[in-house]
Amino acid sequence: MNKREKAIVLSSGGIDSTTVMAVARDRGFDIFSLSFFYGQRHAFELKAAEKVADFFKVERHMTADVDLKRIGGSALTDNIDVPKSRDEQTMAREIPVTYVPARNTIFLSYALAWAEVLECSHIFIGVNAVDYSGYPDCRPEYIRAFEKMANLATKATVEGRLHITIDTPIINLTKAEIITLGHSLGVDYSITHSCYDPSPEGLACGLCDSCVLRRKGFNEAGIKDPTRYVMNG
Questions:
Q1: 80: containing domain
Q2: Which stretches does DSSP call E strand in 78-161?
Q3: Residue 7, strand partner residues
Q4: How many domains would you assign to the chain?
Q5: What pLDDT is recorded for position 40?
Q6: Is the residue at 227 inside a domain?
Q7: How far apart are CA 131 and CA 173, in angstroms?
Q8: Residue 1 located in a structural domain
Q9: If DSSP codes are grouped into helix, strand and coil, which group holds residue 23?
Q10: CB-based contacts of 127: which residues, under 8 Å, 6+ apart?
């Protein structure tokens, strides 16, 4: 593969997207990192995304503003409590209130627009359909549908100058497998952030679904969890 081929990586600053960025780097892509301030209560994640971009020495890191808080409908963007201390069975029972309406569709659409400008064929996203909270826009069938749409949606693809591939290298991995993969690729997970409801100082609550899955992943991977939680500072 041409070592100078470009890839856009959607980056939240969390475990999944950071591992995906490591995979993209390992495959020899020049990385363009894309994050979003969308009115999320855990906007501290954007500081982590900047650290991740610096860590990987990306070609460019961009944070786009998309005001999903005005739409609401999610515990991450609205005045709705973030669920805490839930077991995995409860998490798997229904789509949680932390689901943000159409979030990945919006994010991928921005990435698609940037990809056309950059003449970039690859968009990497850290969706996961295994050890996750059941979001509908993380399923393989959703990704396939978006990729098909993407290749019908732009001037560059219609004219045959570009073919968009949505790369999902961790979609079928457990959280432990994701962490193990990232660890093997040299990821420093201490710079990442996963918590949905962090303290003002950015400490993880340790109790939200994302924290529970993160802690479980490190435990099952046999790798020390570097996360700074409220209970341990």
A1: 6-221
A2: 122-124
A3: 31, 122
A4: 1
A5: 95
A6: no
A7: 7
A8: no
A9: helix
A10: 16, 104, 137, 138, 139, 143, 168, 170, 171
Estimate to the nearest angstrom the gap between the alpha carbon of 70 and the chain centroid.
Answer: 22
Q: In the chain, which stretches have pLDDT less than 70?
A: 1-3, 131-133, 232-233
CATH number, domain containing residue 39: 3.40.50.620
Q: Which two tokens stand for residue 34?
A: 């894309």
Copy the structure tokens of residue 113. Answer: 């627009």
Count Cβ neighbours within 10 Å for each residue of 50-87 and write b for 16 or more, e otherwise.
bbbbebbebeebeeeeeebeeeeebbbbbeeebbeebe
Residue 102 contacts by C-beta under 8 Å, 6 or more apart in sequence?
Answer: 137
The pTM assigned to this predicted structure is 0.95
CA distance linking residue 222 with residue 7, whole number of Å = 31
Please give the single-letter amino acid code of residue 182. G
**How many CA atoms are closer than 13 Å to the CA of 5, on its beta-carbon side?**
16
- Note the pLDDT of residue 232: 64
**How high is the pLDDT of residue 4?**
78
Q: Is residue 226 part of a domain?
A: no
Residue 230 resides in a domain: no
- Cβ contacts of 145 within 8 Å, gap of 6 or more: none
pLDDT digits (tens, 9 = 90+) for 111-160: 999 999 999 999 999 999 886 557 899 999 999 999 999 999 999 999 99
